[in-house]
Write a structure and sequence with these properties.
It comes from Pseudolysinimonas kribbensis. With 115 residues, the chain is an all-alpha fold. The protein has helices spanning 9-15, 23-29, 32-38, 42-53, 58-65, 69-94.
């Protein structure tokens, strides 16, 4: 019968490289939303971070961006719209359609128009 061995969890933790991302971080990094967010201009990312993540009103975030309250509100509006479009584009780009040996789905044209 093998002899049991006691292992100190702190000793094990010290041997794990600290630069490895944890599972949650790795999963988050690969989400469609994060990929879409990263395609936005830096100012859009910043205003979205302040308003959507930090919960600030555009007027509160305006001084950090050197904008008026109205300017920050307009920027936030454009940034949200841009994120929606970027998310849809990332989502469409991520869709995997398996090839079909039977041809296109029913209702799709089977011939191409001559140009």
């Amino acid at each position: 019968m093998p002899k049991s061995q006691t292992v100190d969890i702190d000793d094990v933790a010290e041997r794990i490289p600290s630069d490895l991302p944890d599972i949650e971080t790795a999963t988050l990094e690969n989400t469609i939303t994060v990929r879409a967010f990263r395609t936005l201009p830096e100012r859009w990312q910043t205003i979205l971070w302040y308003t959507e993540v930090e919960g600030m009103e555009p007027a509160e975030a305006a001084p950090y961006l050197g904008l008026t309250a109205n300017g920050a509100a307009a920027l936030a509006y454009r940034a949200r719209d841009g994120l929606k479009k970027a998310w849809l584009q990332a989502h469409v780009s991520d869709v995997r359609v398996p090839p079909s040996a039977d041809g296109p789905p029913s209702g799709w044209p089977t011939t191409t128009a001559a140009h």
